[in-house]
Amino acid sequence: MKSFQGMNRVQGMTLIELLVALALSAVIAIGTFNLLRTSINTRDTLGAQAESTSQLSRAMRLLEQDFIQFSPQRPVKDAFGDFAPAMLMDADGLALTHNGWAWSPFIAYERSTEQRVVYRLAEPGSELCDLLEDDLINDQGGCLIRSYKAHLDDDGSLRWYHQRLLRPLKAIDWRFLTYDPETKSTEYQSEPPTSDPRTGLLLTRLIGVEISLTLGTGPIHQRLFAVPSLPPLDQGALP
Q: Name one GO biological process term (predicted).
């Protein structure tokens, strides 16, 4: 009988030993949970950064393609018969006409190889930038939208097609690099060069367009695109 009781004392665990084992298990479980949570947060952060970088790269690529193929000699006519210049800055955004719109055999309708596009910042909750379930993203800014039509001259029946390029975006700023043949100098302007109302010719020459994108996460990305342009009133050579 004494030998059996002694065997139980040797094989069993005391209450203190049990509590220590439970505490160690709890510490290991908490550590594992924290490690898993950190891994998930890191994955989500890297995924969001990768998505943001991908969107930014695509937006810059489209901007570059449109600007380097800018068609300065092609104004467009609206539904009222009024003509707008090849590049126009107004409350709706920056509109321009560009060449190089590739034709596709899968399109059932005819269209020009030139395209009219508009770049704008759409506010969150608007028709072009719907609200997301994540209020944090909604508060960080809106959407960079690229809109285009199938034809340049509008008879009132054309519709706009919209592409969402970047989100969230706080601000978009434009500057236009011009060359003045009289002073033989370059300067930035807040709007594209306008023509002389008496002659219809340009007084200065547009040679570049600068865009600044302020992302919702804080960074500002700036690019300067060279553009084809018509000669100004004076045929002065560029510096």
A: protein secretion by the type II secretion system
Average pLDDT of the chain, as a whole number: 83
Q: 172: Cβ–Cβ under 8 A, 6 or more apart, which residues?
A: 119, 120, 121, 144, 211, 212, 213, 214
- Tell me how far apart the alpha carbons of residues 134 and 7 are, in angstroms, rounded to a whole number: 62
Provide the token pair at 171. Answer: 């601000």
CA angle 12, 14, 16 (to 5 degrees): 150
In this predicted model, what pLDDT tens digit does every residue of 101-124 receive, in sequence order?
Answer: 755 555 555 666 788 999 999 999
The continuous run of DSSP H or E covering 99 comes out as none
Which has the closest alpha carbon to 49: 221, 220, 217?
Answer: 217
Contact 203, 196 (CB under 8 A): yes
State how far the alpha carbon of 167 is from the alpha carbons of 49, 138, 145, 160, 234, in Å.
12, 9, 9, 20, 43
Q: Parallel, antiparallel, or unpaired: how do β-strands 185-189 and 205-215 relate?
A: unpaired
Evaluate whether 115 touches 146 at the Cβ level (below 8 Å).
Answer: no
Which residue(s) pair with 104 in the sheet?
Answer: none
> In sequence order, which residues have a C-beta less than 8 Å from that of residue 167 and are 6 or more positions away?
55, 129, 137, 141, 142, 143, 144, 216
Q: Which two tokens stand for residue 35?
A: 């490690």
